[in-house]
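Can anyone check this?
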Amino acid sequence: MKAVIFDMDGVIVDSEAFHIKIKMQTLQEYGIEAQAKDCVPYAGRSSKAFFTDFVKKSKKNIAIEEIVARKHTLTTEYIQSGKEIKPVAGAIELIKELYAHKIPLALASSSVRTNIETFLKKFGVYECFSVVLSGAELPESKPNPAIYLQAAEKLGFKPEDCAVIEDAHAGVVAAKRAGNYCIAFNNPFYENCMADLSAADMMVDSLLELSAEQIKQL
C-alpha cells in the first residue's frame, strides 16, 4: 500500500460510548426515547443520517438541522468539560510510525470538522495528516464510498493503492465500495453487538498488531 486512510471514532479516538450517550441525551431532549442498542447500527455514519431516521420514526416535527446542531453542542460541551477521552491503544504510535516512514496519511471521518481537529491536535497527530475530510460536509455519509474516493484522490493515489483502517460496518462497506484495501479493527466496544466486518480484507484485534512495514507490503 502506498497510503493509509484512517477513520477516527473508534479507530483513533475511544469515543463510541460517549457518542452514543450524547445521541441518546439529544433524542430525549426532543422527546424521543432510544436505547444504546438502537444507536449501535449507526456507528461510522453521520449525525444527520442518525437523526433523520429517528425523527422520521417518531413522526415528530423536528428540524434535522436543529437536532443535529444540538448534538454537536452537547459533544463540544462534553469535550470541553475536562472528562478524559483516550486514544485507541496503538493508534497514535501507528500514525507516528507511518508518518516517520513518509507514508501519506488521510483522515476520513463522519464527525464534524471541529471535533476532528480537536482530537487530532489533542493527541499531537494533526500535522501527520496531509488530508483531513469530514463526512458531515458531504451529501451522503458512509456506507456511501464518496469520502474514501475523495480521500484517495486528494492523496494523489488510486483507491486500490490506499489502505483504510475502519471499525464499523458502514465504514468497511464504504471502503470496499471505493475500491480500497480495508483493515478492520475488531473494536471490543462492539463485542456484544456482532458488528459485521466480514467484507474487510484483513482484521486485527488491536492496532498494536500493525506496523508501517507490514502495511507497506500489503
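Reply from J.R.: I decoded it. The domain at 3-14+86-216 is CATH 3.40.50.1000 (Rossmann fold).
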